[in-house]
Design brief:
Shape: elongated
Radius of gyration: 23 Å
Distance between the termini: 16 Å
Strand content: 15-25%
Oligomer: single chain
CATH topology of the largest domain: Rossmann fold
Structural class: alpha/beta
CATH architecture of the largest domain: 3-Layer(aba) Sandwich
CATH superfamily of the largest domain: Glycogen Phosphorylase B
Length: 474
């Protein structure tokens, strides 16, 4: 069996900030049926404080005569004994992973260049056999470059997954010396980016294969609208770029077995019990009206401003909206202002609560995802398993997974609009409210939605094939 090393900064349940953790956690559990898999993570204190580990040894990570870092290689015990941790207390013993109070840590360039090179050095020092390094997002994008320049003896290939192209790891150009690379790598053809360093470029240029987390997003990033100023570079690698849809772990996300919701269910009749409980949790009247749910980051990408503006346009219709999330202060304030203005219609929890997230999926009638862009999106797929009808913009993974409702053909399972504008979201929400009054149609869509399969079964096989391609075996 091939030896695959996942390289990431997050993995559920070990350490999580966003959807990356869910994806890597699923790969770690699903891949062993087909390949030997191991995972490298930074030794964040959020992990080492909760899980037992052994220290395999210490080693130096050399960048230059003026930058030589100390590292330790840890290995978790018991259930996660295929997980390695790269330890450096100064870099990874912090209260958060990437930054605090809305600001990135100022030494993130040093932290994640260290992590990337230390993974390769650990494999060399401790004779860890790796056929393919599977790197995830900009924090690990230097692995393919360091592998080429300094660690050819490992004879490994690389796959680089772009989970969100908007986050590229951009730093001032005068920090380039810290990377321990020759000056030839600070050029437009390499890591230079409008006078700055762009770490993600290293993964795009030097990995054997590149993938994104949905087929549509793989095509979108080749365009100026979604390419985040890297579309030209990405086009040069077009033949090596593919899209593999993220999956859902139905052992966690399934209303038949979900122990975090008020009442487990498999019919719409029982789902209503969860709706009434959700209304009570959010101190909303337990009226028979359409309830829209939102779970996610309160940021521009997620279209939260579009939702806020749309609600103000729809006050002549009866509906309720519940929000759960945290993000930019202006959007948090905007949501809170709505709750104060319309307390019988709108309520929100600013923050994150795993149990409450499950309850929103279970208790809402409709799920809002009017994203400006969405590389994959898990929320819409989770919502569908709970029989909650998604209202989405046609972009990225949302376009790949949500088929528009067509009542004339008795087909589809969501409401889809084209452009990120309040007037278009309003039209879809009004259509959803109209549909809500038709019990038979709602029942039919519920049945279609819950029968869909967005598990990892197909996607895992696509990743195994991608590893083979990276190695030149296909």
């Amino acid at each position: 069996m091939k030896n695959i090393a996942l390289v990431s900064c997050e993995c559920f349940p070990l350490v999580k900030v966003g959807g990356l953790a869910d994806v890597v956690g699923s790969l770690l559990t699903k891949l062993p049926r087909y390949v030997n898999v191991k995972l490298f993570l930074p030794a964040f204190s959020q992990i080492t404080s909760k899980y037992d580990y052994e220290t395999l040894g210490t080693f130096d990570v050399f960048f230059s005569n003026s930058r030589v870092e100390k590292a330790s290689l840890l290995k978790l015990k018991n259930t996660f004994n295929n997980v390695y941790l790269i330890e450096n207390q100064a870099y990874f013993n912090r209260s958060q992973l990437y930054g605090e109070s809305g600001l990135d840590y100022p030494d993130n360039l040093e932290r994640f260049s260290f992590f990337s090179k230390a993974v390769l050095e650990a494999c060399k020092v401790f004779n860890i056999d790796v056929d393919v390094f599977h790197c995830n997002d900009w924090q690990t994008a230097l692995v393919p470059l360091y592998l080429k320049v300094f660690y050819g003896q490992l004879q490994s290939s690389t796959v680089f997954t772009i989970h969100n192209l908007a986050y590229q790891g951009i730093f001032p150009g005068n920090f380039f010396w810290k990377l321990g690379l020759g000056g030839e790598f600070f050029s437009m053809q390499q890591l230079e980016f409008y006078g700055n360093i762009n770490i993600m470029k290293a993964g795009i240029i030097h990995s054997n294969k590149i993938n994104t987390v949905s087929p549509t997003y793989a095509r979108e990033i080749l365009t100026p609208e979604f390419g985040c100023k890297l579309d030209g570079l990405l086009k040069t690698r077009e033949k090596d770029i593919s899209g593999i849809l993220n999956g859902i772990d139905y052992s966690i996300w399934n209303p038949r077995f979900d122990g975090l919701i008020f009442k487990k269910y498999h019919s719409r009749k029982t789902k209503v019990i969860n709706k009434k409980y959700l209304q009570s949790v959010f101190s909303l009247p337990e009226d028979n009206v359409a309830v829209f749910g939102f779970v996610g980051r309160l940021v521009e990408q997620k279209g939260i401003d579009i939702i806020i503006d749309t609600i103000e346009r729809m006050l002549n219709r009866k509906f309720q909206v519940v929000f759960l999330g945290t993000g930019e202060l202006r959007y948090e304030d905007g949501v809170v202002a709505l709750t104060k203005k319309y307390p019988d219609r709108i309520n929100a929890r600013i923050g994150f609560d795993e149990k409450l997230a499950h309850q929103i999926y279970a208790g809402s009638d409709f799920f809002l995802m009017p994203s400006r862009f969405e590389p994959c999106g898990l929320g819409q797929m989770i919502a569908l398993k709970y029989g909650t009808i998604p209202v989405v913009r046609k972009t990225g993974g949302l376009a790949d997974t949500v088929m528009p409702v067509d009542t004339t053909k008795n087909s589809g399972w969501g409401f889809v609009f084209e452009n990120p504008l309040p007037v278009e979201l309003e039209s879809s929400m009004r259509d959803a409210i109209d549909l809500y009054s038709d019990e038979k149609l709602m029942d039919d869509i519920f049945k279609r939605a819950v029968s869909l399969d967005f598990s990892w079964n197909k996607s895992i096989l696509e990743y195994v094939s991608l590893y083979e391609k990276a190695m030149g075996k296909i």
